[in-house]
User: What shape does this take?
Amino acid sequence: MAADRDASTELGERVQRAAGQGTPLDIVAGGSKGFLGRITQSETLDVSAHRGILSYEPSELVLTARAGTPLAEIEDALAVSGQMLAFEPPHFGPSATLGGTVAGALSGPRRPYAGAARDFVLGVKILSGEGRPLSFGGQVMKNVAGYDVSRLMVGAMGTLGVLLEISLKVLPRPARDATVTFAMDAPAAIEAMNAWAGKPLPLSGAYHDEDRLHVRLSGTAGGVDRAIERLGGEAGDGSERWRALREHTLAFFDTELPLWRLSLPAATPPLALPGQTLIDWGGALRWLKSDADVSRIRPAVAEVGGHATLYRNGDRHGDVFHPLTSAMLALHRRLKASFDPKGVLNRGRMYPAL
Amino acid sequence: MASGRVDRKALVAEFRAFLDADSVLHEAEDLAPFECDGLTAYRQTPLVAVLPETIDQVQQVLRVCSARKVPVVARGAGTGLSGGALPLADGVLLVLAKFNRILAIDTANRTARVQPGVRNLAISEAAAAYGLYYAPDPSSQIACSIGGNVAENAGGLHCLKYGLTVHNILELEVVMVDGERLTIGAQSLDAAGYDLLALLTGSEGLLAVIVEITVKLLPKPECARLLLAAFDDVALAGAAVGKIVSAGIIPGGLEMMDNAAIRITDDFVHAGYPTDAAAILLCELDGTEQEVDDQLALVSSLMSECGCTEVRVAADEAERQRFWAGRKNAFPAVGKISPDYYCMDGTIPRHQLPTVLTRTAELSQEYGLPVVNVFHAGDGNLHPLILYDASTEGEVERVEELGGKILELCVAVGGTITGEHGVGVEKIDQMCVQFAAAELQHFHAVKNAFDAGNLLNPGKAVPTLTRCAELGGMHVHGGELPFPDIERF
Assistant: This one.
């Protein structure tokens, strides 16, 4: 295992040089998220040496780590104190780091019930596009001093700053998890997931695949037992199943076809699009493997108030993320210019114009 | 920046072209009710106040103001505690009170689409029929408007478990300074592009005017039980909070009051608190019956291990409400015994509580001004209330100075100057303590990306670098922190 090290000075100098020369940089740490976003061909800014947990106080529910810290290392440290990252981030490989997870806003099956990556970010230290170190937010739960730049970094795909340090709110692991499974078609599953989400039940996951609805319950032993009685279905452990869903290792994800990530209002009935669908997040996330044309997929998704990302495969040079309106894109460009005036950070990774 | 000379008559005439006479206020007597928000120490009459009732009218107001380079301050219910809605003498006050309709409740998706002037509590009342509610519950929830909640990222008693405003909204309709309408966020759980929803939340009206909000609704917990634990030492109470959290329990609410707060509120509402305790903790556990039973047993035994002098579990709903009444009436109770009080809003890492309370008590002595402490203990958000009498010569200035010292103390222990009330005009100087010039510059750059002419709520939330430079001594530089002798984490 590589040693913990503060590499921020050399990273800052590297970004300053790049800004001076106007040479774009691709920010990379573990390389596990290389498939996300658009393909770019810039020089590599390797942040993997900048790693290590800087502080972790279980009774404060706050952890601060350098961006290059392996996600597994963080989760192991939390597990020792019976805590977890409640947004249940996918790793997509053993080299996954905290920085890539936050930059990509990656959240797993618990997301609709516990919150997304952005909901748990309390503070960040970044390098601006000019290589200047900046600190925003902090290590406390409630903080409304200044604009919420920390959360703005989440999902910005490294286009607004090089993440150096991240402070996160962490949560206790539930005392018990259980899974109940039902034979159900997609329309019925969407209805059931949303009806249950409106009831005081200890839900922590709900997905539908191959005419089976799987519901995870997490909480105190008594609370989970009672919820299993109320919901019925076939009860089991299911932890392997949820890991496979999170890591995209379920059979569904084994495909060469374009894999679309459709983010929709949760109760939206199944969309009439060609291809196969797996429904996660209690209906709010639909994975679609389909070779249907983008011009068919995106309008259908936008029509119901959602957006579509070309997650894996397909044309990685085009609009991988759902295109923005011109006014919105103009605002994005102005924001990008305010953090990265020379446009050197992950240029084109998110949108061609950013 | 706007010129100081704005032709009021011409401006009023322009507004009258699309607003009726009652919606364009410019006489002194009509403007008086708008001269301050919940921070009454600051007062200013605006040049003109407008009360539009359609999004189109808001767009037109902003187009007129942009064209004339007149600054605009948006205002909801005016309950804010940091002067965020304080009018400008040469500016327009954009009052969103007429935007008071709940547009839709979507039970299947568990969302409500509301106008910004809708009261926080009204959303939960409307959703109650479906077993749903809107979680953030600032103490002003009966009066405060949801638009203001978004602008300030309001919190409340239950945010350790259920989050702040930023965690409980999905989509905003906003009008930019040039009158353009944008949708921020989405009806889905995330949106394409940057997380502008987070950026707009808590931006104190400096980036855009919010004209519609989609909030998340949560199922009402099946039951809630309240436990009261008394301690003869504040430090023990603080440690007990850490114990609860370390044991894997996130209570729905976790509040602490010091002895002064206990006595004052008990006199006021007869909550039945142990008035000789140095501190009490109020720990509310919610969820299903079984979950709450499981957790209540655990918390009761933890409190005894932590050296509490007494544990009481509210026997019924009436007693639960009575226990809460003391905490929820802390501000009015203080208002009853003191002519004036000043509410602070620092957040600190919880383990710093004993240090901060000791220092606050010393400062209170030094300034000869009593301080009462109520504390959102679960998330470290402290509300020291400074008691004073504004009619005493020079007391207001001393209170502000003491308040400033308390906030600097919060920053010095690794916390923040504001947990949920916002910076506004009130804490603008303490921003110079919390942030260095480079970060402040970036805040201005963000502002510039939205509002290059600096017309939306100028002068609030983010100080100019010049202002900070003038305050020189307050800057936090390497080894020259205020309170250099205390531990830092």
